[in-house]
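Internal tracking record. Fields below are filled automatically when a chain is submitted to the structure queue. Please do not edit lines marked as system-generated. If the sequence contains nonstandard residues, flag them in the REMARKS field before resubmitting.
Queue: standard
Priority: normal
Entity type: single polypeptide chain
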Amino acid sequence: MNILYKSTRSDAAPVTASAAILKGLSPDGGLFVPERIPELQKPLSVLAGMSYPELAYEIMSAWLGDFTGEELKHCIDHAYDEKFDTKTIAPLVKKDGLYYLELFHGPTIAFKDMALQILPHLMVTAAKKNGVKNEIVILTATSGDTGKAAMAGFADVPGTKIIVFYPNGGVSNIQRLQMATQRGENTHVAAINGNFDDAQTAVKNMFGDRALADELASCGFQFSSANSINIGRLVPQIVYYVYAYCQLLASGEIAEGDFINITVPTGNFGNILAAYYAKLMGLPVRKLICASNENKVLADFFGTGLYDRKRPFLLTSSPSMDILISSNLERLIYRLTGDDSAKTLAFMQDLREKGSYEITDAMREGLRDFVGGFATEEENFAGIKALYERTGYVIDTHTGIANAVCRRYREETGDLTPTVIASTASPFKFAGAVIGAIAPDQAAGKSDFELIDLISSLSGVKEPFAITDIRTAPIRHKTVVDAKDMPADVKQFLKI
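SYSTEM-GENERATED OUTPUT FOLLOWS
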């Protein structure tokens, strides 16, 4: 029986997986969640013998039931191909007692590729299945990685356009260059004068603007989302956590049924939510360690049950995590309420109107699968340096947050369960900060690309093509707007 998807904010009739992917966000502003969580249908020992595409089909077919086997295999085969620089797709590397799940081998060298290389194919297939005639306009806000990964996936895909907003000055220079040089006649990028939360809020408001939707429809367009609020982003992310376990099993690092812990550097909560869904499917996961940077709204929430965004917004060396409104947390809140949309809506209204909400003691009991923690800039850099000096392995600043939080958790609790760390970006993407951690005496006065050359020299790893490409690519996108002018910028690009 196919799984249907319902809103976190109302009792509106549930929709099919393909309809949920097309809509992105429920019309009432809620996020789509499954009516039930599917279980793993085959033993982990069998799954351990599968390639990444084979495992992706096994997991995703359970969630996306109205896609035919042929349709889903077509989407998977066109996503996980030579665009990734390794046939393993998501290698698991053991260093200094921990397992780093390298999720950055796709075309934009960040974990967002794992889902955003398949989402365009899912969306185009879903449009055909639902008889959609309008051109799909992907509208997204990014804190650095989602925008480029989404554009790389959707560039020149027929029947789609993609518009990306990012905080001006709030992303690394390499992230900015990746977006500003993006090819594709259907792509548009704009920097906004504000932070990621300003961009995300404006995007959500546009999704909820009925008059704007009608205006777009009259011109043959309709919005959809490539942010992690889209269930079509979340489902593919579940795959790589199961794959990590399978790699441990296949290599003899664990036995079938042994528990693992998973540590995820977290901003918008989507990546760790996917790990939670993998656990609910039956993956033997003991603890989900939610690692925050100094914008530690999630770490505080897991410690107190109070979600409070009323705090200074800090710019850190892990910019993709510089977030105070973690949109995907709403899906967990909904589950903690016992799937009560009215209670969930009330919490989200409090967040919007008061800047905070506090869950009940009974709901906090449901958080026992999670551990929250944060690392300072100094702890992050010290951990990156120590790992490099012990092993020669270089990680980026987001993975560094997870590394620092995980190691402190193990020291404080004595919990030595085999632990997978989601390594979410290539160190080449944040070269300045990484060199500042491992070789600060060599960083002064060097350009971004000189720093990249230095990382390659120190690590013995060749720079990815994604970096080589932007060395000479022309700047195509130069727009800068205020958050309040984002709707006008959308209309201008669409020639409305």
